């Protein structure tokens, strides 16, 4: 079921009859299963060279189609469409050409492709939702992972409501990859579609119409319905205000140029040209990889204020490789994603989309409980889910798709720099930036004196709700066996009860997070190990969460999340406050002994 009406302009594109036809023949091509094609939380990510190896890409795409084309929309509509788009990384356009031929070989009636083949992940979700006959989208992205022939490439599938495919879908795809014997592909040269053609241009490949579309129009319209652009533009034009944005050469950059630059008038835009290797950087907006932004905002590498350098900017923000993640900073202050979510929830009514308040909020389990406190105090239902945006999607669609209770208007987020709402079914980096501009505009309404800064907003929030000191330690490319041994060792602590002793940080218990979806009843086990602590001097809670990441392309990443609540004393830096908790978590887990790692690869 579609939430928004089909847009006329795209309908006209699909109805066009003057399209170049490329003669071709469907060639069923024998193949055999390739091991290791199990999708993670956001699709399948592997090294680019592996995707370029014989039959790797066709095997996975054919397996997706063998599941997707059995959907009710595809089965009942003779004119359904599938969107193909990517984040612009190395191999993006070559893969699109191959995927077009595979879709044509499987008799997909219509294919939509953005001009240049590049769209941010949020814009993909928005576009899919706008089309009444679109069964989904094949999205070529490895998100925040580096791009290049020696780096990462990925593919995920978004379903008809614009949401990432759920575990039922991805498990079926994985099973197909283990039994595949042939893929269907039409003949033709390496390039069957001109990705530089103007929007509205069509070509027929085999019996499939391929239409080039405007990547911006639908998404810009969606955001304009969520925010008051007049208010935002007025605030941006205030001579006291200066905003900077780092696109990290990802797919979100051109969208930022369009929305922040052309429409709102933000002048300080960095690295907003999409590049196949993201300009040689790691396109992950955090304190470690967004170093230029951190320095511009007058911060030290740990996110605390620099004593040697101030900043002229009111707000600093960044997006990742596919434009779905965000980083928010003020002068000399880094806003943790968990705090950002809680502050947006508390100040939601300044955003037109939420003018009547929220019905539901959700966070991933490793995220801090800051939003829980806001929700409880304001009578809003709050959910804690496994990591993965698809779990939020079910809650957003509870009424529309499952005929259950409505939680919309809905706000959600995760500690991994993802924030979003029910305007689409993906996290949305630009949406978060616009939300923060809205908050600052509201905080400064009628104020002709000193500007209310990001730091003021954050500290007022801490004073009202208390502070959740928070940090994440990433131990990347660990031996998989060592990582699994660590998790098994923690499972051995379940049932043990701590307490007592003379230390400030007192271990209470260990638990494993499991989740039964309240909407569709699906069960997700082994979602992370939680060590719970109590601070002896204050009685406040603290915890350490261990989780293995499913988004890397090789090895295992051990993520250690540290959280300590303080309801009264919110001064000080998170690194200092959490140092003891981190040492205790490493000791209990035997992380150093098992992995040989003396320190994390990345701290955020």
UniProtKB/TrEMBL annotation:
Residues 1-19 form the signal peptide. It is an enzyme of class 5 (isomerase). It comes from the Eukaryota. It catalyses: alpha-D-glucose 1-phosphate = alpha-D-glucose 6-phosphate. This is phosphoglucomutase (alpha-D-glucose-1,6-bisphosphate-dependent). Belongs to the phosphohexose mutase family. The keyword Signal applies. One of its GO terms (molecular function) is magnesium ion binding. GO terms for cellular component: cytosol. Its cofactor is Mg(2+).
């Amino acid at each position: 079921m579609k939430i928004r009406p089909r847009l006329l302009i795209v309908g006209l594109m699909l109805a066009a009859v003057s399209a170049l036809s490329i003669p071709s023949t469907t060639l069923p091509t024998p193949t055999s299963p390739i091991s290791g094609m199990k999708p993670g939380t956001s699709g399948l990510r592997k090294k680019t060279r592996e995707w370029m190896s014989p039959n790797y890409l066709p095997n996975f795409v054919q397996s997706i189609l063998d599941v997707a084309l059995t959907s009710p929309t595809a089965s009942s509509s003779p004119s359904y469409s599938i969107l193909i788009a990517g984040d612009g990384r190395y191999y993006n356009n070559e893969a699109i050409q191959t995927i077009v031929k595979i879709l044509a070989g499987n008799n997909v009636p219509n294919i939509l492709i953005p001009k240049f083949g590049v769209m941010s992940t949020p814009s993909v979700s928005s576009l899919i939702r706008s089309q009444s006959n679109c069964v989904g989208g094949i999205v070529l992205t490895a998100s925040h992972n580096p791009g290049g022939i020696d780096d990462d490439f990925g593919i995920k599938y978004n379903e008809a409501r614009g949401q990432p495919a759920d575990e039922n879908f991805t498990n079926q795809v994985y099973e197909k990859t283990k039994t595949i014997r042939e893929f269907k592909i039409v003949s033709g040269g390496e390039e069957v579609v001109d990705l530089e053609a103007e929007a509205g241009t069509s070509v027929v490949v085999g019996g499939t119409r391929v239409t080039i579309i405007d990547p911006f129009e639908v998404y810009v319209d969606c955001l304009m319905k969520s925010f008051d652009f007049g208010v935002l533009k007025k605030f941006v034009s205030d001579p006291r205000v200066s905003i900077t944005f780092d696109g990290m050469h990802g797919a979100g950059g051109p969208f930022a140029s369009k929305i922040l630059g052309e429409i709102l008038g933000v002048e300080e835009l960095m690295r907003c040209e999409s590049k196949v290797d993201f300009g040689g950087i790691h396109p992950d907006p955090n304190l470690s990889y967004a170093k230029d932004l951190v320095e511009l905002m007058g911060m030290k590498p740990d996110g605390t204020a620099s004593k040697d350098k101030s900043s002229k900017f009111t707000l600093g923000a960044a997006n990742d490789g596919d434009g779905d993640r965000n980083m928010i900073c003020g002068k000399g202050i880094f806003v943790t994603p968990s705090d950002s979510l809680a502050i947006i929830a508390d100040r939601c009514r300044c955003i037109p989309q939420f003018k009547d308040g929220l019905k539901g909020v959700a966070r991933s389990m490793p995220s801090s409980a800051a939003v829980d406190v806001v929700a409880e105090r304001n009578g809003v239902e709050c959910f804690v889910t496994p990591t993965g945006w698809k779990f939020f999607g079910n809650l957003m669609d509870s009424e529309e798709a499952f005929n259950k209770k409505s939680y919309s208007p809905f706000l959600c987020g995760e500690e991994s720099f993802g924030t979003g709402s029910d305007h689409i079914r993906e996290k949305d980096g630009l949406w978060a930036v616009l939300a923060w501009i809205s908050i600052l505009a509201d905080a400064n309404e009628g104020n002709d004196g000193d500007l209310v800064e990001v730091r003021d907003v954050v500290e007022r929030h801490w004073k009202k709700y208390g502070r959740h000191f928070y940090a994440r330690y990433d131990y990347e490319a660990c031996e998989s066996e060592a990582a699994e041994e660590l998790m098994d060792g923690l499972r051995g602590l379940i049932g043990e009860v701590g307490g007592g002793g003379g230390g400030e940080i007192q271990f209470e218990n260990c638990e494993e997070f499991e989740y039964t979806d309240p909407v569709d009843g699906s069960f997700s086990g082994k979602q992370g190990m939680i060590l719970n602590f109590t601070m002896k001097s204050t009685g406040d809670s603290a915890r350490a969460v261990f989780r293995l990441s499913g988004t890397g392309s090789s090895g295992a990443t051990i993520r250690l999340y540290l959280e300590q609540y303080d309801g009264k004393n919110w001064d000080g830096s998170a690194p200092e406050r959490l140092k003891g908790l981190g040492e205790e978590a490493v000791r209990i887990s035997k992380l150093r002994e098992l992995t040989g790692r003396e320190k994390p690869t990345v701290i955020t």
